[in-house]
Amino acid sequence: MQYNRILLKLSGESLMGEQKYGIDTRCLESYARQIHEIAEMGIQIGIVIGGGNIFRGLSGTNKGFDRVKGDNMGMLATVINSLALSSALDNEGCKNKVLTAIRMEPIGEFYSKAKAMEYLKSGHVTIISGGTGNPYFTTDTASSLRAIEIEADAMFKGTRVDGIYTADPEKDSTATKFDKITYDEIYNRGLKVMDLTATTLCKENHLPIIVFNMDQPGNLKKVILGENIGTIVY
Ligand SMILES: Nc1ncnc2c1ncn2[C@@H]1O[C@H](COP(=O)(O)OP(=O)(O)O)[C@@H](O)[C@H]1O
Ligand SMILES: O=c1ccn([C@@H]2O[C@H](COP(=O)(O)OP(=O)(O)O)[C@@H](O)[C@H]2O)c(=O)[nH]1
């Protein structure tokens, strides 16, 4: 198999499922099942989840919130989603731990690379919550950073579109999908699937990114088995 250790990034917004806000438990259960399935194959899995289903700092500033406080709220939202996923994994009988980028024991243990590696190597799905712990960043950047730190073979960006397109496929129905794309093409074409800080971190550290549709049950396993269903960034 191509992958021994991966970092899976899950979109907070996708967790809403059909709802307008919050967490759709069916969506959560489907994610937990898919994660358990690949954990049983012996893959070491680190996870970073977004918080966009609950709060985004930048949209908060448009409503009059202070940016730093808004970003702190966003980071706390990622902790809420992480605890929800942890609980769904528990229900699946899948060993897991939640680490937090901001100290908040006993909700989760404070993140360090050493702690994350210890849990990954002992077969725990390791959810790294709280983003980078700093305002002005995104969870895409947090997942790039954690992927590099844990020496993941690749970053898997599980989202609600099935790859990277020439334009946002949710807005432009004529957009066409790439099977492969270079980091530089993402910059040159101005594609908005990931923010530039996250893309740059992956580029500088030679971390491949695979973007795929996580809302289709079974897709995570297919990507692990090397099926070409998403877009690979290299
Ligand atoms: N060129 C593009 N190719 C694919 N998706 C794109 C592109 N541009 C923008 N997007 C958007 O990026 C989203 C994926 O990013 P993600 O971080 O999972 O979502 P969100 O930020 O909403 O939580 C897709 O839902 C899609 O609407
Ligand atoms: O390192 C980080 C990661 C996240 N956030 C905040 O948390 C929110 C939720 O994360 P994100 O928007 O990346 O979630 P997603 O789009 O994946 O749902 C962001 O809007 C930011 O306000 C932050 O301040 N620093």
Protein model, in words:
The chain is of the alpha/beta class. The chain has one domain: 3-Layer(aba) Sandwich (Carbamate kinase). It contains eight helices and nine strands. The chain has helices at residues 25-39, 57-62, 67-92, 113-121, 139-149, 183-189, 196-204, 219-224, and strands spanning 5-10, 44-49, 96-100, 109-110, 125-129, 154-159, 180-181, 209-213, 231-233. Strands 4-3-5-2-1-6-8-9-7 form a nine-stranded mixed sheet, sandwiched between helices. Helix 1 (25-39) links the parallel strand 1 and strand 2 (44-49). The radius of gyration is 16 Å and the shape is globular. The two termini are 19 Å apart. Uridine-5'-diphosphate binds next to helix 2, helix 3 and helix 5. Uridine-5'-diphosphate (UDP) is lined by residues 11-13, 50-52, 56-58, 70-71, 74-75, 77-78, 131-132, 134-135, 137-140, 142.
Question: What key phrases describe this protein's structure?
Answer:
234 residues; alpha/beta; Carbamate kinase; 8 helices; 17% strand; globular; binds adenosine-5'-diphosphate; binds uridine-5'-diphosphate
List the helices and strands and how they pair.
Layout: E1 5-10, H1 25-39, E2 44-49, H2 57-62, H3 67-92, E3 96-100, E4 109-110, H4 113-121, E5 125-129, H5 139-149, E6 154-159, E7 180-181, H6 183-189, H7 196-204, E8 209-213, H8 219-224, E9 231-233
Parallel strand pairs: 1-2, 1-6, 2-5, 3-4, 3-5, 6-8, 7-9
Antiparallel strand pairs: 8-9
This protein binds adenosine-5'-diphosphate and uridine-5'-diphosphate (UDP).
Protein name: Uridylate kinase
Subcellular location: Cytoplasm
GO cellular component, one term: cytoplasm
